[in-house]
Amino acid sequence: MNTIDAKKELILKTARELLAKNGFAKTTLDDIAQALGMKKSSLYYYYSNKDALLEDVMNRERDNFCLMIEDALKSNDSTINKIINYEKSKFEYVAETIKLHEISTSVLFEMKSKMFKQIQIIHKREIEMLKKVLDEGIKKKEIKKCDTHRIAELILTLSEALRHREFYFASFSINKKIDFSKAIDDMIFAIKLIFDGLKV
């Protein structure tokens, strides 16, 4: 990694931390430059504005997330266990990201509106990956023939709904801490129900 790439990495890491802590509206390029110990004019060498920096941060986050879920689906396990592992990994990734960067629910909701394009890309990739795992399950005769695209969409919808439920409840609590343990249990239960209906 050359000096420019290393500096850009540091800028992205610092920007991610400040954005997670303060949100997009309250984070300025001055804040980021100050946290890095550099002048704002030096930051413009790497990024022309805050939106360009945010886009790079979101692209990096998207790529990290997609790599993580791809890894979770690569095991030689049964189809149901691959999908359970994938869901656990997703919940753990989100929980760790929130904990690591002390993201409040209000900041998360603000950033989510800015991340809509990224969320659509991730959603499409997840559907493709889940469909592929389900198609392989049919070939291995682990599950019966079905509309794997619709099953993939259903699994993803349930997962998103359970995460949103926890964000919603946390927004009303005093400490605003998000605990995904019930959501993970509910997701595993739902996956098992789906797979009971898909038994050969």
Describe this structure in words.
The structure is a single chain. With 200 residues, this protein is mainly alpha-helical. Helices cover 78% and strands 0% of the residues. Helix 1 crosses helix 2 (29-36) and helix 5 (79-101) runs antiparallel to helix 9. The protein is elongated and about 65 Å long. The N and C termini lie far apart (51 Å). GO terms for molecular function: DNA binding.
Structure summary:
Helices cover 78% and strands 0% of the residues. With 200 residues, it is mostly helical.
What is the strand and helix layout of this fold?
Blueprint: H1 3-22, H2 29-36, H3 40-43, H4 50-73, H5 79-101, H6 105-114, H7 116-139, H8 148-172, H9 181-197
Helix pairs in contact: 1-2, 1-4, 4-5, 4-7, 5-9, 7-8, 8-9
Name the helix and strand elements from N-terminus to C-terminus, one letter apiece.
HHHHHHHHH
Helix content: over 70%
Structural class: mainly alpha
Oligomer: single chain
Whole-number mean pLDDT: 85
- CATH domain class name: Mainly Alpha
Largest sheet: none
InterPro entries: Homeodomain-like_sf, HTH_TetR, Tet_transcr_reg_TetR-rel_C_sf
Protein name: Transcriptional regulator
Keywords: DNA-binding, Transcription, Transcription regulation
DNA-binding region: 28-47
